[in-house]
Amino acid sequence: MPFKKGDPRPAGSGMPKGRVTAAKQTVRDRLEQLGCDLVEYLSLTVVNKVPCGVCRGTGKTKFQSGAEQPGERTCQSCWGSKLERLKPSERADAAGLLMKYCYPAMQAIEVSNPDGTLRPSWEVVILEAKDGK
Questions:
Q1: Would the pLDDT of 29 be above 60?
Q2: Which residues contact 111 (CB under 8 A, 6 or more apart)?
Q3: 8 A C-beta contact, residue 84 and residue 55
Q4: 80 and 74 Cβ atoms separated by less than 8 Å
Q5: Architecture in CATH for domain 36-102
Q6: Is the whole model's pTM more than 0.90, yes or no?
């Protein structure tokens, strides 16, 4: 029986707290199947230790030059360092994503005057000098 507008919800209705939706569970299962650990990848990104995607962390790539036999050369993406070149902004973004799992989020604080306005108000007090001037 559907509840009517204005009536309180019946006890126990709705999704229980902490339950994972079917869509999220499907994604989690698929990532586990593929052996993908997102937290590990973000951690490697923060410390700038992501293996190069072109040479797969070997530092060398294969190439063919004309009729010659195929050879190897230094990876043109990582230049032999075997690590992906990441911008500082990419590393900061990864750190920000991980930080919300390590530290509680801060609440925003509203600053306003007693009358509700956001404009600053100052009160000027003129003091008399001790010698009467």
A1: yes
A2: 118
A3: no
A4: yes
A5: Ribbon (2.10)
A6: no
